[in-house]
C-alpha cells in the first residue's frame, strides 16, 4: 500500500527526505511556510545580482555529497576557489587553513540544491503554507496538519518535522496527541538553543581584487562574524561591481535585530571599511538584509529522546538533530531519517 508521508519544511532536511523516497511507493507532501524552497540555504535576486544571503555554500567533506551534487547536473555548478581567511577581535587578518575543501553553489544560487533534488521526485510541495497545529488520529494511527488558513493536510502514515528546534517545539506544543511521549519529545526539542545572525548585504560600484573569498572571525571578539565576496561566485555579480555578504556576530545581531536597515547597514559598512582599511567600503550604493532568528544550533538534541515516537510514525530531522549548522549535515539527516521511516530501522 502506498505510504502517505507528510513533511513540514522544504529546507535541506525536508528535501533530502523527499529525495530519499523518490523510488519508494510513497505519496510525499511537503508543507512549507515560505514561497521559496531550501530554507536557510536561501538565494535572492536584486539589481542584476544573485546572492546567497543565508548559508554561503555547501561543503563536501564526504564523497557522497560531492557525487550527489555532480549527479544533480554539472551545468551551473560553481566551486568557489578563492580561500577563506581569518581575522581576530583587533581586526588583524591572516591566511586561514582552507584545507582545499570545495565550496559549492550554483550560478542561480544555493536554492538550486532543493530545486534540483525536488525535480527528481513526485513530491507535492505546498508553498506559502504555514503549519499551525498537528493532530494524531488515534484510531487510524495517522497524522493531520492544519495550516494558519485553517486548511488541513493529510492524513499521513508518517510525519517528518524539520523546522529549527524552537519552531518545532512550538508545533509540538500545539499538537493534539494524548500520549506521554509528546511532552518528553517537546522538552528535549525545546532544550536546543540557536544563535541569531543578521545578514547585511553591501553593494559597491567597484571591485577590488582581494586574495580571499571570505574572512571569518575566529575569536568571537568582533561585531562582524563573516564577510564574503559574492562576486567570487560565477554569475552572481556583474563585472566591475562587488557585493559583500556581512554576517554580524550573534550578540550584535540579537541586539540590533530590529534596527532600521539604514542604521544597521551604516554600522556594518563602517566596521567593514575599518576591517579592510579602505574608506570606500563605508559607502555602499545599495544595501539589503535578512534576519535569521534561528541561524545556527548551539548543539544537538538528545538523540534518544527525539526518536521515542518513531513507532507512532513521528520523526524529526534537521541541523539541530545532528547538532551542526551545515547544509550537507541537514540534507543527509533528512535523507537517512526517511530511510528509517520506510524500513523502520
Ligand atoms: C546566516 C547563515 C549562514 C550559514 N552558513 C552556512 C554555510 O556557509 N554552509 C553550511 O553548510 N551551512 C550554513 N548555514 C547553516 C545551514 O543553512 C543550515 O544548517 C541548514 O540549511 C539547515 O537546514 P534544515 O533543513 O535543517 O533547516 P531549514 O533550512 O531552516 O528548513 C526548515 C524549513 O521549515 C520551514 N518551516 C518552519 N516552520 C514552518 C511551519 N510552521 N510550517 C511550514 N514550514 C515551516 C522553514 O521555512 C524552512 O524552509 C548557515 C545558516 C545561516 C542562517
TrEMBL record:
Coiled coil: none annotated. It comes from the Archaea. Residues 101-341 form the Amine oxidase domain. Gene3D superfamilies: 3.90.660.10, FAD/NAD(P)-binding domain. InterPro entries: Amino_oxidase, FAD/NAD-bd_sf. GO terms for molecular function: oxidoreductase activity. This is Amine oxidase domain-containing protein.
Amino acid at each position: 500500500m502506498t505510504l502517505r508521508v507528510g513533511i513540514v519544511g522544504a529546507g535541506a532536511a525536508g528535501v533530502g527526505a523527499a529525495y530519499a523516497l523518490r523510488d519508494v511507493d510513497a505519496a510525499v507532501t511537503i508543507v512549507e511556510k515560505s514561497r521559496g524552497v531550501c530554507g536557510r540555504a536561501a538565494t535572492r535576486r536584486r539589481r542584476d545580482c544573485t546572492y546567497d544571503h543565508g548559508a554561503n555554500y555547501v561543503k563536501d567533506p564526504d564523497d557522497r555529497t560531492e557525487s550527489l551534487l555532480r549527479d544533480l547536473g554539472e551545468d551551473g555548478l560553481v566551486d568557489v576557489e578563492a580561500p577563506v581567511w581569518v581575522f581576530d577581535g583587533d581586526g588583524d587578518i591572516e591566511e586561514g587553513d582552507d584545507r582545499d575543501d570545495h565550496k559549492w553553489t550554483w550560478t542561480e544560487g544555493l536554492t538550486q540544491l532543493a530545486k534540483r533534488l525536488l525535480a527528481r521526485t513526485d513530491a507535492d510541495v505546498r508553498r506559502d503554507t504555514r503549519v499551525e497545529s498537528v493532530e494524531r488520529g488515534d484510531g487510524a494511527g495517522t497524522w493531520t496538519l492544519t495550516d494558519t488558513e485553517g486548511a488541513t493536510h493529510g492524513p499521513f502514515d508518517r510525519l517528518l518535522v524539520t523546522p529549527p528546534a524552537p519552531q518545532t517545539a512550538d508545533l509540538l506544543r500545539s499538537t493534539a496527541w494524548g500520549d506521554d511521549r509528546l511532552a518528553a519529545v517537546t522538552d528535549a526539542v525545546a532544550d536546543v538553543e540557536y544563535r541569531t545572525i543578521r545578514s547585511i548585504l553591501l553593494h559597491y560600484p567597484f571591485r577590488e581584487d582581494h586574495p580571499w573569498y571570505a574572512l571569518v572571525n575566529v575569536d568571537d571578539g568582533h561585531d562582524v562574524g563573516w564577510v564574503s565576496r559574492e562576486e567570487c561566485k560565477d554569475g552572481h555579480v556583474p563585472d566591475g561591481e562587488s557585493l559583500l555578504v556581512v554576517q554580524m556576530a550573534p550578540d550584535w545581531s540579537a541586539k540590533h535585530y530590529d534596527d532600521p536597515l539604514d542604521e544597521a547597514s551604516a554600522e556594518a559598512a563602517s566596521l567593514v571599511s575599518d576591517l579592510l582599511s579602505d574608506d570606500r567600503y563605508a559607502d555602499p550604493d545599495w544595501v539589503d538584509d535578512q534576519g535569521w532568528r534561528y541561524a545556527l544550533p548551539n548543539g544537538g538534541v538528545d538523540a534518544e529522546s527525539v526518536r521515542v515516537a518513531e513507532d507512532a510514525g513521528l520523526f524529526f530531522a534537521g541541523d539541530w538533530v545532528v547538532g551542526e549548522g551545515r547544509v550537507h549535515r541537514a540534507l543527509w539527516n533528512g535523507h537517512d531519517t526517511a530511510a528509517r521511516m520506510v524500513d523502520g530501522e
